Amino acid sequence: MEWFTAPEYWMSRLVFQRALAVLYLVAFLTAALQFRALMGERGMLPVPRFVERVPFKRAPSLFQLHYSDRFFAVCAWTGCAVSAALVAGLDSLLPLWGGMVLWLVPWVLYLSIVNVGQTWYGFGWESLLLEVGFLAVFLGNDEVAPPVLVLFLLRWILFRVEFGAGLIKMRGDECWRKLTCLDHHHETQPMPGPLSWFFHHLPRPLHRVEVAANHVTQLVVPFLLFTPQPVATAAASLMILTQLWLVLSGNFSWLNWITIVLALSAVRFPADPPSVPGTPLWYEVLVLAVAALLAGLSYQPVRNMLSRRQVMNRSFDPLHLVNTYGAFGSVSRVRHEVVVEGTDADVPREDSDWREYEFKGKPGDPGHWPRQFAPYHLRLDWMMWFAALSPAYAGSWFGALVERLLENDRDTLKLLRRSPFPADAPPRYVRARLFRYRYTTWRELRETGACWERTYVREYLPPTRLAGVTQRS
Predict the structure, then answer these.
(1) How many CB atoms lie within 10 A of CB 7?
(2) Omega of the bond leading into 203 within 30 degrees of 0 (cis)
(3) How much is the pTM?
(4) What pLDDT does residue 1 have?
(5) For residue 195, with 0-12 CB atoms within 10 Å meaning exposed, 13-18 middle and 19 or more buried, which class applies?
(6) What does DSSP assign to residue 175?
(7) Which is it for the CA torsion 356, 360, 363, 366, positive or negative?
(8) Cα separation of 318 and 432, whole Å?
(9) Is 335 helix (H, G, I), strand (E, B) or coil?
(10) Minimum mean pLDDT among 2-16, 87-101, 206-220, 449-463: which range?
(11) DSSP assignment letter at 334
(12) Cis geometry, peptide bond prior to residue 146 (ω within 30 degrees of 0)
């Protein structure tokens, strides 16, 4: 069937596949380096405890069948190895079915991680990576031209990502309609980057232009993805430029990068495709069946987008095949941060020697300038931002974090930038306090060199020690 494939998108597929494999590699590396403290056997939210109460059909995962920290590590590092092989183009050296199996491996492994990841993996870009990764299985390799239906479904995902985000903004916080959200967002976003301070201090009229341009890109441009070339390429290119602007302004894990990868699949690169034999019948039947399945599963996300009660970042099936997306329907006007401190004093007093724990990405020391981490995802730092919004977000894991700090747990301390206590001398008490943070002005920056100014708000957690530990005499 000549209509089944689009040879002119040969280079687009190649760029898309290699870029997606890089994101897979980052995701598996994040899991391999952080899982023990977060959800390992002695983690804050252990996987074994989760699988005891959640059945396989609700959260399909290899770890429902067996879990140990060693097995999880094997799966995560295997995901890294397979992703690196895909970056290198190993799938193009295999027969068509072999390339598809190779792309299926990271999808199964990452689905297994996400479905037992609990709070730590409750972010929209986890489902987005899985949805895109599933389609990548059926995109083919050098033995066939890219299937039209799969290319269309990739654009359908990109449309839902952008249009859904645009709708959630227009239905949400009034500052999006007044074009004033960026007066606050760069300061209050979950994890500022090294340039966020400068973005915040851009002239307010420019902030209005930014918001207006965002509305155009998310509410108008997505429809142009389904128009003939070169208009579709122009629309995708505009989305890429918008996402690169967001990359510069903050640390949003791989959300921006996977949106860019999706947009690359709609860009028609000037390249002559090689000649290939006819598409196998089994492959055509399989792609048609998958397309029909995903079209049927799109009902719930479309219904959600059209609803006045639209929700953000939700999966409607346990395999995360078709999901709904959106971000920042509301924007905080004030930034709060939870500052965690410890002391080795026998009796904790206000004038005791309280020493602050420093996180890698979230604001802490006012003089510490933010670093760029995205697309790498600092999961604990992100959840600390939510904890500052409301203790309800921290109810399931914050107590366990404090317990690990009181034990000087090695895996937990690896998640931090700095612990103020030596490895052989853990603190006697740990407490948490809530501070209001604001960016310094240009004058304050010149005088102090600090990008933040903070003010004490209230106690978040009173001085806490391990149960059963007696005071020293």
Answers:
(1) 14
(2) no
(3) 0.95
(4) 60
(5) middle
(6) H
(7) positive
(8) 36
(9) strand
(10) 2-16
(11) S
(12) no
